[in-house]
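Milestone M4 deliverable, item 7.
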Amino acid sequence: MTFRPMILTAALAACFAVAPAMAADNPDAARLSQRLTALDADSTLNTFAAYERLQARQAVSTLDQAAKRDRPGALYVAERRVAIAESAARTQAMQRQVDQLDRERSELLVEASRRDAANARAESERLRLQAQMQAEEAERLRQQSEVDAAAMQDVESALKGVAGAQTARLNAARDRQAKLAREEAELVTGGKLPAAKRDSRGEVFALDKASFGAGKASLGSGAQTTVKTVAAYAQASSSPGVKVEVTAADAKLAQRRAEAVRDALVAGGWPQGQVQVTGKAGKTDRTELVVQSK
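Output delivered:
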């Protein structure tokens, strides 16, 4: 099958070479041959529908050589073949343009998501520094107000209100950063992140129990994509590290599963040195990926 394009090209060239020899008493063959010649000369179309153009050339050649009684049928076939070649060339050219536009659109979406994520990270860092400065100012005010208990109480109340509002803004900025990082990860990998929860360890993603076969330590293809999406999310959110915690009926099986998840994270672009794996025996099968926060 490797030589088919070369064979088609050679055949087209041969057909094109004999085109001028069309019989003068067959204007239909000459007319159809001119349409094919125009198609071959069109630089936007002549690289498409090579097989259809070859069939059209052969049909026109058959029309040119047909006896008069056979020409109506041969003319019908030749006209259909030429029309099919023209239509196929235009369709394939349009499909290539559509594919190019789709690729450009995906690239623009990923780039826009990355810019938004970068802006969200910058805003989060600005708010963190602002909160740190306010905390330092609060400490200074507390030290100044130690001589006056009543004044100290007023200052503490005011500072708690400021700190609460600042914390709310910081949490909102972090939530937006996480949302944009999730969108970027899913766009880049084409996968979906599982549901997550936050606890003292960080953001916790739990893999579905069907990610591993019964008694098996290898991830299924869908679970591989999910883990790679988690790796992309950890990168987009600038996480300092990822922990893999697995429990299974057998401790050795749990450890092998944890290592399989680690390998999938590394395959997704996450540094191996920033992955901690833990496998232990437990009553229920559980696989969790903990994306740590700054």
